[in-house]
Specification:
Elements: H1 3-14, E1 18-25, E2 28-36, E3 47-48, H2 53-66, H3 76-79, H4 91-96, H5 108-116, H6 124-131, H7 148-162, H8 166-175, E4 184-186, E5 199-200, E6 210-211, E7 225-228, H9 230-241, H10 248-254, E8 258-259, E9 269-271, E10 276-278, E11 287-293, E12 296-306, E13 309-317, H11 325-341
Antiparallel strand pairs: 1-2, 1-13, 3-7, 4-7, 5-6, 8-9, 9-10, 11-12, 12-13
Length: 342
């Protein structure tokens, strides 16, 4: 079975609106393609990458640290003086999700607000007030809890340190050096105009799957959100692991993993700085990040030591509200890649 057949068959089996995928081996694009219900999705389809943006954020933070513009040990309160934070919450804690700060993602009121007024996002103060009064989940550095609020504050730290907007920081430190043509931060509904349709129930009051692009405001993604292609996100993660973006010490810091549930039996997942790993994967060492939100489900992973060499794979699914489709498709593709090489 060819890789294209693999993607087309998987899309047909699941009924998702569309899927775009790319495979890169040792820095070179090995394969890229797409499949939809009507066959019109281009291989270079742009989609919101949602939390994969956190990997870009972490790269920017580490590059600014290399330049001396900030220190990972800096108290976040020194950069965000109007936010009531303890002085022992550091930039490194935000990057690793070990600050103890909570998250708005699990809050029913957040999802109710997105559904009832998707074009009118919460203000910065509303995001902070939804989370900070609940207190810390644990002492800084003594646990792990995914925190979009933490990455929202991290975005603000980057802007203060660089003296530029978040979009400008990502362009200067990631997109421009890698000659990315389709990767950029968006902050208005019009910013989705180059994206392919993505269908999900999150923005419809009746819970029906609709094209989210005309109504969903990127401001609901408080940490900031970029759009990209499957091919370009594999280019980013491949260049990262190849040592082409960060200095060796910074890369080692980024890839130092913290178990998500320390001490729990059967723990399979760990997190570094803006990058995750399934440490129990039968395919060996791996690093990547997932992303999910209204209309789209995405995943990018790199396997540094496969029989073929350094392999990165990205899957963008243009449907949401269901299971982690992108991970399932990624696993199907990996099986096809290794079968093709056998």
């Amino acid at each position: 079975m060819t890789l294209q057949d693999c993607v087309s068959e998987w899309r047909s089996d699941t009924g998702v609106a569309g899927v775009s995928a790319a495979v890169r081996v040792n820095g070179r694009l090995h394969w890229t393609s797409a499949a939809t219900r009507n066959g019109v999705l281009a291989a270079d389809a742009q989609c919101p990458i949602y939390s994969i943006t956190k990997t870009l954020t972490a790269i920017c933070a580490l590059r600014l640290s290399e330049r001396g513009a900030l220190n990972l040990t800096d108290p976040v309160a020194a950069w965000c003086s109007d936010v009531d934070l303890r002085g022992d919450v550091t930039v490194a804690h935000l990057l690793r999700h070990t600050s103890g700060l909570g998250d708005y993602g699990p809050l029913p009121e957040y999802h109710d607000a997105v559904r009832s007024h998707p074009s009118d996002p919460w203000s910065r103060r509303q995001f902070l007030d939804a989370v900070l009064p609940r207190g810390l989940c644990f002492e800084p550095g003594r646990g792990w809890a995914y925190s979009n609020i933490g990455y929202m504050l991290l975005r603000e730290v980057l802007q203060h340190a660089a003296g530029r907007t978040f979009a400008e920081v990502v362009h200067e430190l990631v997109a421009a050096p890698l000659a990315l043509q389709h990767t950029r931060v968006v902050d208005t509904i019009d910013g989705w105009s180059t994206c392919v349709p993505g269908f999900g129930p999150e923005v419809d009051v009746d819970g029906q799957p609709v094209d989210v692009r005309p109504v969903y405001h990127p401001g609901w993604c408080a940490p900031g959100v970029a759009v990209s292609t499957a091919e370009e996100v594999t280019r980013v993660i491949d260049a990262l692991l190849a040592g082409q973006i960060l200095e060796r010490r910074s890369l080692a810091e980024m890839l130092t993993l913290v178990p998500i549930s320390p001490g729990a039996p059967g723990v399979a997942h760990a997190y570094g700085m803006g990058i995750a790993s399934e440490i129990a994967s039968p395919r060996g060492a791996n690093y990547g990040h997932g992303g999910g939100g209204p209309g789209y489900d995405l995943d990018v992973t790199i396997f540094p030591d496969t029989p073929l060499g350094r392999m990165s794979i990205a899957v963008f699914v243009c449907s949401s509200g269901g299971p982690r489709w992108s991970q399932a498709c990624q696993e199907r593709l990996l099986s096809c890649v290794f079968a093709e090489d056998a």
